[in-house]
Design goal:
By secondary structure, the chain is an alpha+beta fold. Among the domains are: 113 residues, Glutathione synthase, substrate-binding domain superfamily, eukaryotic (Rossmann fold, 3-Layer(aba) Sandwich); 55 residues, no CATH class. Helix content is 36%, strand content 23%. Helix 4 crosses helix 14. The longest helix has 20 residues. The radius of gyration is 22 Å and the shape is globular. The protein starts with 7 loop residues before the first helix and ends in a 5-residue tail after the last helix. The relative contact order is 0.19.
């Protein structure tokens, strides 16, 4: 492919070596809010990359189109009936809150963006807001682009407004006074530093904020208590999506009885993030059956890789395994996922005997950089943090290996620059 045939974003991802994230400044800012004090560089050496990832504006528009289409389908009564019929009973309870920080993860393929996953408790948003505040322009085009972005203060205000809206949807006029950020043994979670960033932000707006394990919560007749403090809203970071574990029974009872606003919640996971839903979203007959319009299907046909339940002839799946990426239906993150061509017979036996879905393999795009020993390539996925169908923030994840891992030197979260202006084209002069 010649340079004239490649778009600006692709050329820059291949040839731009600029470091735009001021990592010392970023790490210093995060270290300042950690409790107990410690160095995020020591605990998370590969959490952030200095490199930006460049995105074509047409691809951004297509990503928003896919998100819009998913949003339409997820609100169809027949789709909800079909999905909730196969979900735990707790998911059928509607507490009105929409669910914060929906994560839509995309690979940018040769024929455009492909939605590979939806998550209801997508991590990293607060960390990537901190990245936004540590950007430094490397050229005039980057300087002009950064000037068009919302400020850190604006992003933070939008996040706070999102939580306030969740509260208002469920509780109307009462002011939001307390938030509990809840995860299992939170200080041991890999993304615990962003819990501290979230607490700092909420408390700066006058909302008392706690970070807690669910076992610390107590159930009262009319609410949830944490160390004697009444909790209005739970920012739920658990991966026990339906509160099945005995350690999460206070949350389960509170959700069933409407004693606190919990977001994201079981219903949101069932409607958006259960991986078996991707099989519906990529199936024309299924979409027609639930009443999706033709134009919605066309968007999803282009933007969602074919996904199927791993059922049927094991020999056929083994023969065709190189065409598929296998994921546990109820999994999260990258746990238990396998590239088909990497499967051994032993692991394959577990896949075909377990509850797995197979997604048409969609190679990620690449971000290159020059090093002292030659060029190095990173795989890229792009996460859109979404609320009520609107993209609030984007971040890329750079990695090497089979899945995103935050163990790759030079990889990690990276800012996304949408390149479509004349300035970027001028800045490309001299690139190969």
């Amino acid at each position: 492919m010649t340079g004239s045939e490649r778009n600006v974003a692709e050329l820059l991802n291949r040839a731009c070596d600029c470091a735009v994230t001021d990592l010392p400044k970023l790490r210093q800012g995060i270290d300042s809010v950690l409790d107990p004090p410690r160095s995020i560089l020591e605990s998370h050496p590969h959490l952030f990359s200095e490199l930006p990832v460049f995105l074509d504006p047409a691809h951004l528009a297509q990503m928003q189109g896919v998100i819009d289409a998913v949003e339409v389908v997820c609100h169809l009564p027949k789709f909800q009936d079909a999905v909730l019929r196969e979900s735990p009973g707790i998911a059928r309870i509607d507490r009105r809150a929409a669910g914060v920080f929906m994560g839509f993860d995309f690979h940018i393929g040769r024929d455009g963006p492909k939605l590979i996953e939806v998550n209801t408790n997508a991590g990293g948003a607060f960390l990537n807001i901190a990245v936004h505040d540590a950007q430094r322009a490397c050229c005039q085009a980057a300087d002009e682009y950064l000037a068009t972005l919302p400020s850190t203060a604006q992003l933070e205000s939008e996040v706070v407004s999102m939580f306030e809206r969740e509260w208002t949807l469920a509780r109307a006029a009462r002011p939001l006074m307390t938030i509990a950020i809840v995860d299992a043994d939170p200080q041991r979670q890999f993304l615990y530093p962003e819990f501290e960033l979230a607490r700092k932000l909420f408390e700066s707006r006058g909302v008392r904020t706690h970070i807690a394990d669910p076992s610390e919560l107590d159930l009262a007749d009319d609410g949830i208590l944490l160390r004697g403090d009444r909790i209005d809203l739970v920012y739920n970071r658990l991966t026990d999506f339906y509160f099945d574990s005995p350690t999460n029974q206070v949350l389960r009872l509170a959700y069933e009885r409407g004693l606190a606003v919990i977001t994201p919640h079981p219903r949101a996971h069932a409607l958006y993030a259960n991986k078996r839903n991707l099989a519906l979203l990529s199936n024309e007959d299924a979409l027609e059956e639930v009443g999706a319009a033709r134009q919605v299907f066309e968007v999803l046909r282009r933007g969602v890789p074919t996904t199927r339940a791993v059922v049927g002839c094991a020999d056929t799946w083994w023969r065709d395994r190189k065409d598929w990426f296998f994921k546990p239906r109820n999994g999260f993150g990258s746990r238990g996922t396998y590239r088909g061509e990497k499967l051994t017979r032993r692991v394959f036996a577990e896949v075909v005997n377990g509850e797995y879905i197979a997604q048409e393999f969609t190679p990620p795009s690449e971000r290159w950089r020059s090093t002292a020993v030659g060029e190095e390539a990173f795989k890229v996925d792009i996460r859109c943090y979404v609320y009520a169908g609107k993209i609030q923030l984007m971040a890329a994840r750079l990695y090497q290996g089979q899945t995103t891992n935050f163990r790759t030197a030079g990889g990690g979260f990276a800012p996304v620059y949408v390149v479509g202006s004349k300035g970027w084209n001028e800045g490309m002069k001299g690139l190969p």
